[in-house]
Amino acid sequence: MTATHRAMAITAPGHLALVERPVPVPETGEVLIAVEACGVCGADRGDIERADPALRRVPGHEVVGRIMALGPQVPAIWSVGQRVGVGRFGGHCGNCRECRQGKFHLCRQQPVMGSTRDGGYAERMTARATGLVSIPDDLSLAEAAPILCAGLATFNGLKASGAGPGDTVAVLGIGGLGHMALQYARRMGFRVIAIGRGADIAADALDLGAHRYVDTEREDAAAVLTALGGAKALLSTIGDTGVVASVMPGLAPEGRLVLLGIGKDPLAVATAPLVSGERSVVGSITGSPYDSERTLDFSVLTGARPRIETLPLERANEAVHRMLSGAVTFRMVLTMGGSVAPQ
């Protein structure tokens, strides 16, 4: 085992630099992972822009690779060489009130990968065993990476929507999250309405599973949904709360708005439609490692796959910029390998 590894660290607000670091040693209850791929997620932007450069934090929370070493007291279900992943939440503590209720994804003491703990923009990374996800052999590691965040968030959001087979489900925002939501929604047996901005995404939306695409530049999305009888669920992947509010009137009685995207502005909600139609608004966070494994298994069983582009680790700045500009085809994934001198 080499003594050092390469990583892309935050050396200035909004900027990553290639550095060389000692290979970390797993502590009690941790494993050392040889990272093979790491997805580039929209949440990485905040981590990179707001981090204290003095910490030289390594971002990345859609991490997949193989276990290289086990720390003390790691359960026997994990072994060296095993394919594993780690998502946004890096492992529950087992002691807080939420953990004692079995709500591990709401644990108050778990690290946030890439934010409060070094993440996967690196060749090596340690992680709590409680945060590990087993990766099916039928998925490539590059494909599995985005499923640990974008896939998990939308899969759990759809499960929380209250919709059943045959119901109308609308997906607002056809990007990194939305393109997974369309695939899952179609395979769950919903009538799927994709809502996006512009005609350029229409063909992709239909190919991904939508029965109907609504271009908000040309159509009133709420009116379209109302004409279809209303949406049992509206899954919002965007942060523009004004747009979200404009589509909400398209919910059917007892319909549910499920928020995945986080906006800076408050969401304006008219109370009369909520009360009179018993509609509701809920938030949905990603999920536990078990939820991740369910999502991965569903993806394998149904053939749902993220559409990805890949770049090598040392081009992480370019990957992040492409993701933020919308130039990437749905999801960007960093892959490890190659040789570039650290700075």
From TrEMBL:
Record the organism.
Answer: Azospirillum brasilense
Q: Which PANTHER family match?
A: ALCOHOL DEHYDROGENASE 1-RELATED (PTHR42940), ALCOHOL DEHYDROGENASE-LIKE N-TERMINAL DOMAIN-CONTAINING PROTEIN (PTHR42940:SF7)
Q: Which family does it belong to?
A: Belongs to the zinc-containing alcohol dehydrogenase family.
Give all residue intervals belonging to the Enoyl reductase (ER) domain: 11-334
Annotated SUPFAM superfamilies: GroES-like, NAD(P)-binding Rossmann-fold domains
- Which molecular function GO terms apply here? alcohol dehydrogenase (NAD+) activity; zinc ion binding
The protein's UniProt keywords, in alphabetical order, are: Metal-binding, Oxidoreductase, Plasmid, Zinc
What does this protein need as cofactor?
Answer: Zn(2+)
Query: What are the GO cellular component annotations?
Result: cytoplasm
Spell out the InterPro entries in the cross-references. Answer: ADH-like_C, ADH-like_N, ADH_Zn_CS, ER, GroES-like_sf, NAD(P)-bd_dom_sf
The domain of life for this entry's organism is Bacteria
Lineage of producing organism = Bacteria, Pseudomonadati, Pseudomonadota, Alphaproteobacteria, Rhodospirillales
This chain belongs to the protein called Alcohol dehydrogenase
Do you know which Pfam families this protein is assigned to? Answer: ADH_N, ADH_zinc_N
